[in-house]
Amino acid sequence: MSDVIVIAGKGGTGKTTVSALITLMLAKRRAGAVLAVDADPNSNLSDALGLSEVGTIADIIEEVARSPETVPQSMGKDSFIEYKIHNDISENDGFDLLVMGRPEGPGCYCYINNVLRNVMAKLISEYGFSVIDNEAGLEHFSRKTTRAAGELIVVSDESQVGLRSAERIIALIDELGIAAKKRFLVVNRQQTPLDPQTVKTKFAVDDVFMVPFDKEVLDLSSKGSPLSGLSESSKARLAIEAMGDRIWPKN
Ligand SMILES: Nc1ncnc2c1ncn2[C@@H]1O[C@H](COP(=O)(O)OP(=O)(O)OP(=O)(O)O)[C@@H](O)[C@H]1O
Ligand SMILES: [Mg+2]
Known about the structure:
There is one protein chain. This protein is an alpha/beta fold and 251 residues long. It has one domain: 3-Layer(aba) Sandwich (Rossmann fold), CATH 3.40.50. Helix content is 43%, strand content 18%. An eight-stranded mixed β-sheet has the order 3-4-2-5-1-6-7-8, with helices on both faces. The protein is globular and about 60 Å long. Adenosine-5'-triphosphate binds next to α1, β7 and α9.
């Protein structure tokens, strides 16, 4: 069974960092194949995971829409797109990465998007875990990919404004009818003590996790270096590993 983990939250709260740390944590555990999906067109999940020159799904869609003649007749569009996507996935030590990108040119992508949806669903089902780094704005929250969400993780900073915004996102998730088996709140870059129990009661979530401010994270990201470079004692990394033990207990 494939476990889909969707990361959401206001811009700049740490979605990409949390997505990358969860991916690395799950990869290290080797409890199942891990697929990281960068679903944010402005994102940098590939940098956080230390991969460059990653092809995007948008490029594939673009190519097929612009030059349908590139599709081999013997193959048909569906299989061709599927083949190209498989080809574009970058395989790494313990996890694979898929970057959605942003389709540009004009034209109707309805047909291709439909194909994409099916291909994505099939692809995700091939992995034990899929970690989806979502866009900040929930307007674009893809019901299609999130419909099957096992865990929805909303990332917030520790400010009152930040927490209120996370609360709105959680409410919006209900309004949009996005089903997730479990919902969690991650208070990231935490510096002042905050009682998880109080926060948990206030928010309608299954659990709350604190990820401390970690200078190591900031130093790596400002150098553009991957988070795999965090030390064994990195506070953020340890917090995500402890969170992993609670959400996905080892048996
Ligand atoms: N626990 C942490 N400790 C220190 N710095 C952090 C921590 N988490 C994230 N950061 C830093 O905060 C910044 C924003 O993080 P990140 O890019 O993960 O946020 P985001 O929500 O994905 O942003 P965007 O909405 O732009 O995609 C980055 O510089 C990152 O290195
Ligand atoms: Mg991001």
